[in-house]
Amino acid sequence: MNELSTLPVMPLDIDALPPLDGKKLLITGGARGLGEGFVRAAVARGAQVTIADIAAHAGEALAAELQDAGHAVSFVRVDLSDPASVEAAAQAAGQQMGGIDGLVNNGAITNSGGKMATELSVETWDAVMNVNVRGTWLMTMAALPFLRASGQGRVVNIASDTALWGAPRLLAYTASKGAVMSMTRSLARELGPDGITVNAIAPGLVEVEATAYVPAARHRHYLEGRALPRAQVPDDVVGPVLFLLSDASRFVTGQVLPVNGGFVMP
């Protein structure tokens, strides 16, 4: 077999991304990884952002860095498995920013990586579902009064292409992200009369700190299976998320967009 060619990763042109001037965004899981990429791009395009994350040290440090650079950024700690914490975080974000125009449900955990279905414990299954599925629902409901008041509410759920191709040894996470996709469609119909759009992004295997545990063979499997043969980086997901938060996507709702270099083409 011929050696697989690999495309270079080109720098992202932030100025080419959709403008978010004046929009007030709440981004969960925004302290690190993909979420950090969303936060940095959003403020660069004019948004005001509240970072919500369980990782308080990282979240506070990122908020302080961006504040020093002149951006309107704040941090609230949230435990997505705790309904009271979710409600408090949404209320704090809405009060700090004077409203919420857009919500990115990015916070999630894996926990089940590397285990077969027969090896999963009920505790692991419940932990993943409580954060990834119930937490997404709870945060959307907690932010809903603000999104309705906005008159232009946007919800972007971060799913995963693992739910599109059925990744093995990742059952709880894969099932949770499939549930997020289904939830996206139902919420789009329920919240549409309020002028709120609800969409999902399904990234592939992104090279971030949270995926460092993934075996090299799985990374190679993705690389060889992509129509665009290169590693996926956070900047690859930023553009689609900002588009779905922007006015440019005002008539797009209930959609699941795979962003994975063509690894899955549903």
Automatic annotation (TrEMBL):
PROSITE patterns: ADH_SHORT. CDD domains: SDR_c. Pfam families: adh_short_C2. The keyword Oxidoreductase applies. The keyword NAD applies. Its EC number is 1.1.1.100. Belongs to the short-chain dehydrogenases/reductases (SDR) family. This is 3-oxoacyl-[acyl-carrier-protein] reductase FabG. It comes from Pandoraea sputorum.
